[in-house]
Automatic annotation (TrEMBL), chain A:
Main location: nucleus
UniProt cross-references to InterPro entries, sorted A to Z: CBFA_NFYB_domain, DNA_Pol-Epsilon_Subunit, Histone-fold
PANTHER family hit by this protein: DNA POLYMERASE EPSILON SUBUNIT 3
UniProt keyword list: Nucleus
Protein name according to UniProt: DNA polymerase epsilon subunit 3
Organism of origin: Bombyx mori
This protein's GO CC annotations: CHRAC; epsilon DNA polymerase complex
GO molecular function: chromatin DNA binding; protein heterodimerization activity
Gene3D superfamilies per UniProt: Histone, subunit A
SUPFAM superfamilies in UniProt: Histone-fold
All residue ranges annotated as the Transcription factor CBF/NF-Y/archaeal histone domain in the record: 9-73
GO biological process, one term: heterochromatin formation
One Pfam short name: CBFD_NFYB_HMF
TrEMBL record, chain B:
Domain of life: Eukaryota
Oligomer and partners: Heterodimer with POLE3; binds to DNA. Component of the CHRAC ISWI chromatin remodeling complex at least composed of SMARCA5/SNF2H, BAZ1A/ACF1, CHRAC1 and POLE3; the complex preferentially binds DNA through the CHRAC1-POLE3 heterodimer and possesses ATP-dependent nucleosome-remodeling activity. Within the complex, the heterodimer with POLE3 interacts with SMARCA5/SNF2H; the interaction is direct and enhances nucleosome sliding activity by the SMARCA5/SNF2H and BAZ1A/ACF1 interaction. Within the complex, the heterodimer with POLE3 interacts with BAZ1A/ACF1; the interactions are direct.
Naturally occurring in which organism (per UniProt): Bombyx mandarina
Subcellular location: Nucleus
Gene3D superfamilies: Histone, subunit A
Keywords recorded for this protein, A-Z: Acetylation, Coiled coil, DNA-binding, Nucleotidyltransferase, Nucleus, Phosphoprotein, Transferase
GO CC annotation: CHRAC
Name of the protein: Chromatin accessibility complex protein 1
Length: 119, 127
């Protein structure tokens, strides 16, 4: 299935925002540099995905997990990202379970309300 | 149900990252958890590379070449070498080609003799 070329690129405006936040204010970045970074980011996504997929295949699993992504960092020699990603994963799991219990709580409240109305 | 932006704290669009991930061969399902981490680490990567390039630049203007230099010199960035070559002017390219041609003309034919006193310097391109 043919994909539009832009679908595999990350939006330049977003990449620019990330770069600006990372650098001190007052630094200007050439368009070529921004485009280069955007392309590099896309290639990096593929690179990480490939490394993580290899790990999953070696373990005879099919679905990628967050931990696989973290383990992949060591394989591709980006050990410096292991710790921040570990924190990100914790943060993600906390958010996910908070959302889950919030929606379950809401469901419980709705059921309670229905019971009262039945009286 | 709207997710507050501060909770997600990501800039890159998850859907686009997912599209890229799925274009990789052998990838089957991409769940939200690995998608989140891949997106996150890609942002970290961009910031990291930008900061290093900026240090490389010694100025307040970040240019492509500052990034290309780092990519070419750091082996962990090997995967980027093809898409971020160092760029040279046409004149520099011509000078490079002229030097190569001169060198090929000077090199004597393959001499497997052990007594060879000529040092032949290899001019191999390192991939």
């Amino acid at each position: 299935m043919a994909e539009k070329p832009e679908d595999l690129n990350l939006p330049l405006t977003v990449v620019t925002r990330i770069v600006k936040e990372a650098l001190p204010s007052g630094v200007s970045i050439s368009k070529e540099a921004r485009t280069g970074l955007a392309k590099a980011a896309s290639v990096f996504v593929l690179y990480v995905t490939s490394a993580a997929t290899n790990i999953v295949k070696n373990k005879k699993r099919k679905a990628l997990t967050g931990q696989d992504v973290i383990d992949a960092m060591k394989d591709i020699e980006f050990d410096r990202f292991v710790e921040p990603l570990g924190e990100a994963l914790e943060h993600y799991k906390t958010m996910a379970s908070a959302r889950k219990s919030a929606s379950m709580k809401k469901k419980d409240e709705q059921e309670d309300a229905e019971v009262i109305e039945d009286d | 149900m709207a997710t507050p932006k501060s909770e997600k704290d990501l800039h890159l669009p998850l859907s686009r990252v997912k599209t890229i991930m799925k274009s990789s061969p052998d990838v089957e399902a991409v769940g939200p958890e690995p998608l989140y981490l891949v997106t996150k680490v890609t942002e970290l990567f961009v910031m990291d590379l930008a900061k290093r390039a900026h240090k490389n630049s010694n100025a307040n203007f970040l240019e492509y070449k500052h990034i290309a230099d780092i990519v070419q010199e750091d082996d962990t960035l090997d995967f980027l070498r093809e898409i971020m070559p160092r760029k040279i002017t046409v004149r520099q390219f011509k000078e490079m080609m002229a030097k190569k041609a001169a060198k090929n003309g000077d090199d004597s034919s393959e001499d497997s003799s052990e007594d060879s006193s000529e040092d032949s310097s290899s001019n191999n391109e390192q991939e």
